[in-house]
Amino acid sequence: MNSNEEKVILVDHSNRELGTMEKMEAHRNGGTLHRAFSIFIFNSTGDMLLQRRALSKYHSGGLLTNTCCSHPRPGEDIYQAGSRRLMEEMGMQCAVQEIFCFEYKAHLDGDITEWEYDHVLVGNSDSVPKINPTEVADFQYVAVEELLLDLQSHPEKYTHWFKASVQKVVEWQTGEKA
Question: Which of 89, 114, 116, 135 is an active site residue?
Fold first, then answer.
């Protein structure tokens, strides 16, 4: 592992690069704003591919979330990072496009703070993931309507960034307000 592999890209509120920081340091002491991405994959029937994060993850273990999420490494663009992490986490490849960005801050257990400028990427695939068990406990394709009902009834089952972005992703995917 080279020295860039565990660093995140620090950004301002306009996504301008400010430097780098070790990943865990960027998530401690109230967090430092850094670049991230979230990938949402839909199959040909419009179902969304969710993953359940591995229990061993340093935060949000066992929670449901979008297909893949992570941080680009220094010198790596969002698409390169997305492709790398989609293969590392889900064992699959899929062309993606960016549909929006948003900033969020969430204080989690264990003095962890997620403060991210998150690029949201979407793609379409009917592939069956080959999950990496150190990253992902399980996966499922879920009908959007069913997902939104479950999210409303059981928000505690989902990651903060997923809850902050899924509505806008569904609106983009369906072409209407969900």
Answer: 116
